[in-house]
Structures are given as structure tokens and as C-alpha cells.
Amino acid sequence: MSNEIRKDYILDRWVIIASERGKRPTDFSVRPSERSKTETCPFCPGNEKMTPPAFLLYIPSAKGVERDRDSNGERRSDWLVRGIPNLYPALRPREPRSLSADELHEREDGVGEHQVVIESPRHDEHLDRARVEQVRLVVQAYIDRLEALSKWKYVSIFRNHRKEAGASLSHAHSQIIATPIIPKKIANELTASKAYLQSKGSCPYCDILEKERDTDRFICENESFVTLAPWASVYPFEFWLLPKRHQSTMLKLKEGEKGDLARMLRTALGSLAKVLRDPPYTFGFHIAPSAREIEHFHWHLEVYPKLAIQAGFEDSTGIFINVTPPELAAESLRDGLK
Amino acid sequence: MSNEIRKDYILDRWVIIASERGKRPTDFSVRPSERSKTETCPFCPGNEKMTPPAFLLYIPSAKGVERDRDSNGERRSDWLVRGIPNLYPALRPREPRSLSADELHEREDGVGEHQVVIESPRHDEHLDRARVEQVRLVVQAYIDRLEALSKWKYVSIFRNHRKEAGASLSHAHSQIIATPIIPKKIANELTASKAYLQSKGSCPYCDILEKERDTDRFICENESFVTLAPWASVYPFEFWLLPKRHQSTMLKLKEGEKGDLARMLRTALGSLAKVLRDPPYTFGFHIAPSAREIEHFHWHLEVYPKLAIQAGFEDSTGIFINVTPPELAAESLRDGLK
User: Chain B contacts of A166, Cβ < 8 Å?
Assistant: First the structure.
């Protein structure tokens, strides 16, 4: 096999697929996770005073799970999921200042929200190894935050797994940043999917689901979700989770779909962890802005394992070099399901 | 200072400038470079047989420096600069195959060139600490390659410094990849600078040079070049080198300008190494494609220190978070000049 240059399904994003090197899982050396047991974890139960009060708590109750929040300076420690403000927020909620600007120096005030979802009271209950009912609560927390932050132009829900992928704490958690602008990557997807719909009469993501099913990039599915390695994967072992039902954001997920999403997350991330020995990765939900339903968009989750270093060529050209063709990645990730 | 969101001078690229955190050089922990002395370096003189024959050699001679190449299976070892094919090329020069494609699966054959410029016979003679006459030879080698590869749509000249920034070998070297497509980042700069010229009647980079001179983002200059920390720096301590004379590629650099570029590289990278204890960085030349002079473009070099990890938020939104405002970066880099 020779190298080829592939374009993303709909975006003007190109990647050199280095089939010649065709790196398999064993070609990547991933160091075992380091957990500094000696330091006190601010996200573990009992240490809630080390963090701001929670605005979201899922508490076990006789009826199942109840929603609560910290109040009166108290911190509850009997939670299953805990949502708190980030102690070092990239953006803060406040009245926006008006800032001077000119033609070459445009800017806006850095207003927004930066929050943390602590996914489990158990330090190491990461999504790849969590109990499905726990992942189901995390999914519910994402949807809760999406609703609560819908006044912002965009709500980015993402996860950094392991220090090498930007996680400053090893306790299982996700992050949420609400921004006063629509991020460019999302804007590009909105523009490209709209153009596709106008020219083809269909949603590009629905077409991707349909067409990739019978290729060697398909990884797995359940009743509501599909996992696949995308045609122009920019990262080795990159995969996407897509809902089968056309929907532009997660706000109207049905109860059954929430469970299916939890199971699919657990399954796909579980395979990744197994095949590559718990590698660093980031994931991010790509959703329609502002809780609006947008006909031509189809939300999905993109998972990027961090096994290679993005360097000068990628930095200065925007062309990625992926040393593991998605077909090879999908084969390994299918094997990891067994 | 509160955080703000800045837009690049001309591109639709936004960055959260985290002034609140305002990380100074001492806030970053950079580990000392590791050099594995035990392994034989394939780029050191005497080990030329470990690499392909050189297509470019600068050889000291009575008249100054002569140009040569390896031939007849021999490898010269008396070189000052050595240009060779990359042993693991991302793209190869050959007749392009015609590849099947469809609406959602576009691709091109992976043809092109991938070369290495070994910058010095001395293993550790990196640009930040090199003798200026040696940097001058490296600049000449870049221009030589640009000419030799001008049949390709684009020639990317870049450098990965230290392992953390993607350098697989620690011997001082740069890389060159010639591509059969115009990279998107360059295409975006071409489009934006053309639009700027049409609306303002001037080159945006000439205007940047003019306007930034009197700001606290200015770092230093010599007769032909300026170094500045750009308004919307995406990386902590990012800086750009720009030629004062309007020119879209480096092919017509005058002899004096080549020397000035060598001195400016040495000075600016020297300050970075001093201030941040030889941090990992990448740099890339942004030039007009295909050796053409393009009226609205103005070549420049962008240097990206790698001090923070790009993670899930950046990955999924394209919005960067920079914890060191460029004004603070420029102040430190100006101090480093002393």
C-alpha cells in the first residue's frame, strides 16, 4: 500500500494517510498511567471543600437518583456525579466589557462558563471501565449542562484523558466550556453540511452512516448508535460515535437512546483502552449551537487518541500525517470488542 | 486583567488569551534535553552510510563554500550542510496513481517529496546557538530546496526542536515536505490577505509590521527583519519573523537579507532558548505556493513553543487557550535579548 492524501467527508481538511508505515497498536508505546497516591484528590468524596460548591449533584435515593446542589456553605459528599465551576476558568460569567479594537486587532471580552463534571465518586471509574449505569448518569449530566448553558452561543463538552492529553487531575472527569462565539470548527461543519444538504438533498452524516456501514471502517453499533473510524482520520485510532436517528443536538435524546449512548461509550472507549493499553485521548461533542435544532446538522462525538506528536508540518500547513490508516484502526478496535 | 478572546490579524482564528493566569517563563517546567550518547547518530559526520546519499552538500573550499552531492555510491563526510531524502517519507516522488473516489471519499495519491536538511556537522549546533555563518548556510539550503522543488504546489519548510515537539533525532536538522496540494492554512492566508489588499489597498503584513512596531508586542528588528509576538498568539511565547521588504517567497532574498535572516533567527531563537531553558518548539515558513510571486502575500516564519498541551477543547472547537498574553511573552523575549 502506498500513501494517499484524503479529504474529510465534507470539510476542506486533508490528511496524509501513511499506509506504508501502517502502524499497528503494538507499534505505539504507551506508558502506564501514573497516579500520585500521595496527593489528596480534590475530586474524591470527602474532599469537596477543596473545590467550589456544586451546582449539580446526582444523589442516590429510594426513588432512584435525585438532583440537588450544594447550598448554605455546605458540601454534600454522598453524590454519584458532581458538577462544579472550574477553579481556573478560561471564561467567566459576567457582564461583558466593551473592548477597544481596530481592523487588525479584533477582540471580544472573555465571558462564558467553564465547568467540570466529576463523573464518579470512584477516582478511577473512567468511562471505558465504568458501570453502565454510571456512564448513563454522566450522559444525563452532559444534557443537563447543555440545557443550563443554552443562552451561550456554543457549549463545548469535552474530555481529556490522562496527563499527556491535558488532564491536570487523574480523577475521572469531563469539562464544559460555554463560549460567546460559535467555534470555527463547528461553524465549518455547519456550513459544509448545509451545502451538502442543499446539493444532495440529504444530511451528510446520515449518508456517512449509510455508506460506511459496509466498509472496513465500520467498528460497531447498537440500536441507536454507530462507531466508525472516519475516512480521513487525522489521528491514529480516531473514531466517531454517531446517533442513527437524525438530530442536531443531544437535548431531545430519548431515554432508550441515553442508555444506548452510555453503552456505546463504554464499549468503544473500552476497546480503545484494551487495544492500546489505556492511551491518552481527548473527545469532544460536535453539536448544533444554542440548543437549536438545525435541519442539516447531525451531532456526533469525535475521539482522538494522542499517540503521535503534532509537529511543524501540521502546525504550519494544517495537513495532518496519520500513520495508522482508519481501516487498520477499525480492524484493531473491532478485535478489542471481543 | 481579565481574559479576552482575540481574532488573528486577518484569519478567522480565535484564541482565548488567559490574562488572568498570565503565565511567565518560570511558570513552565521544561525538562533538560536528553541526549542518548550511547546511540550512534546517523546525522553525525562519519555515519553518512546510515542515510541515503545526499542530493545537496555544502563543502568548505578555498573559494568559500562549494555545492556538491554524493555520487557513485560514495558519501562525502566533509560537509557543512547536508540535504538527504527522509528515510520514512510522508510523500514520495513518483508518477501519481489514479485512485477511485466518490462524493464522500475524496483522495489523491500521496506523491511529493520529504527531505531533511542537516544543519551542521556538529550534533548540537541548533539555530539558537549556532555560528551565524552556519545559520546563513542553512538559510541558503532552504532557498536551494525551494528552487529545486518548485514544480510542486507547495513547499513546506519546517523544524521540530526536541522530542516533545516531534524531533525523532536530536541532531540539528530541518525538514521539507513538498505537497501536490496547497495546504489549507496557506490557502486561508492567501485568501484573507487578498481580501485585505482589495479592501484596504495594502498588504496586511506590511500593515502589521507598521502598526505593531509601537506596541508592547514588538520584540526586535534588524535592517531587514522584525520579530514580534502576534496579537492573537495561539501558543505561549509564540513569535513571528517577518521581512521588512514586501515579498511573497524567499527566492529573491538579497544577499544582505539572507545574512539578516540568519542573524534574526539566531537572535530570536537564542532569546527563546535562554528565557525558557531550551524549550521544545516547531517553526514553519509561510510562503507563496509554487515559487510564484503573489502581490498580496508576504512570507514570514511562525515559531510555536510547545509548553502546553493542546487538548479536547482546542481539538473540538479550534479555539485555542493561550495562558501567556503576547505582550507578556514579548516582554520576556525582549529581556532575553540582553
Answer: 309-312
- How does pLDDT run across A133-189, given as a tens digit for each residue? 999 999 999 999 999 999 999 999 999 999 999 999 999 999 999 999 999 999 999
pLDDT band at B72 (very low <50, low <70, confident <90, very high): confident
CA distance B281 to B276: 11
Q: Is the confidence at residue A33, as pLDDT, over 90?
A: no
Chain B residues 217-276 with a CB less than 8 Å from chain A: 231
How do strand A225-228 and strand B225-228 relate by DSSP bridges? unpaired
Cite the DSSP H helix spans in chain B.
Answer: 132-148, 184-200, 204-212, 255-275, 312-317, 326-335
User: Which residues, 6 or more positions from B188, have their beta carbon under 8 angstroms from its beta carbon?
Assistant: A318, B11, B12
Region A12-33 average pLDDT: 84
CA-nearest of B90, B257, B82 to B174 is B82
> Which residue, B6, B316, B262, B291, is CA-closest to A158?
B316
Residue A34: what pLDDT?
A: 64
Q: Which of B238, B237, B240, B233 is nearest to B320 (CA)?
A: B233
In chain B, which residue's Cα lies nearest the Cα of A21?
B88
Phi/psi for A49 (5° steps) reads: -65, -20
- pLDDT tops 80 at residue A270: yes
pLDDT band (50, 70, 90) for residue A2: confident
Q: Percent of chain A having pLDDT more than 70? A: 98
Structural domain spans, chain A = 4-30+201-283+294-335
Same fold: B4-29+184-280+291-335 with B48-86+110-179: yes
- Which grid cell is B127? 539555530
Residue B31 pLDDT more than 60?
yes
Q: Indicate the CATH number of B48-86+110-179 among 3.40.190.10, 2.30.30.100, 3.30.428.10, 3.40.109.10.
A: 3.30.428.10
Pick from A12, A167, A183: which is nearest to B317 by CB? A183
Nearest chain B residue (CA) to A280: B311
Residue A32 has pLDDT above 80, yes or no: no
Cα(B37)–Cα(A325) distance, integer angstroms: 34
Mean pLDDT of A244-260: 96
A contacts of B286 (beta carbons < 8 Å): 316
The yes-or-no verdict on residue B73 having pLDDT over 90 is: no
**Residue tagged 494544517 (cell numbers):** A318
What CATH architecture applies to the domain B4-29+184-280+291-335?
2-Layer Sandwich (3.30)
Note which residues in 22-81 of chain B have CB less than 8 A from chain A: none
CATH of A4-30+201-283+294-335, one of 3.40.50.300, 3.10.20.30, 1.20.58.1970, 3.30.428.10: 3.30.428.10
Mean pLDDT of chain B: 94
